[in-house]
Amino acid sequence: QVQLVESGGGLVQPGGSLRLSCAASGYTLDYYAIRWFRQAPGKEREGLSCISFSDGRTYYTDSVKGRFTISRDNAKGMVYLQMNSLEPEDTAVYYCAAAGSWYCGPQMDRYEYWGEGTQVTVSL
Fold it and tell me: CA triplet 105, 111, 114: central angle to 5 degrees?
C-alpha cells in the first residue's frame, strides 16, 4: 500500500509560480514511480511529469516542458512539482499517482494509488 497526499495548490496570478508537494508513504517506495496529473473541468485527466523514486529519472509532457520541474526527496518520501510561468490554462485539480515497476507511461490503469488532489487556479 502507498498513501499519497498532495498540497501546495492555491490561487496565483498569470506568470506566477507554485510548488506542489506529494507526500508518499508506504512499503518499498523505491519500487515506484510518481507521476503528476491534472484535470480541468470538462477535460480528460492529463499526465504532466513523472519521476522514478529509485534512480530519479524524469519525464515531461510537451505542454509543461521548460516550465515545470519534478524532483524528489527520498529521505522524506516527497515528490515536488515546481510550476513556473503559470497560465490560466494551467487551472485544474492536480493529482499525484504511484505506479509500480518504475512505470512512467500513459496507461492510467498502471497507476495503482492516487491522492485526493489539490486545486490550482491561475487568474487575475
Answer: 135
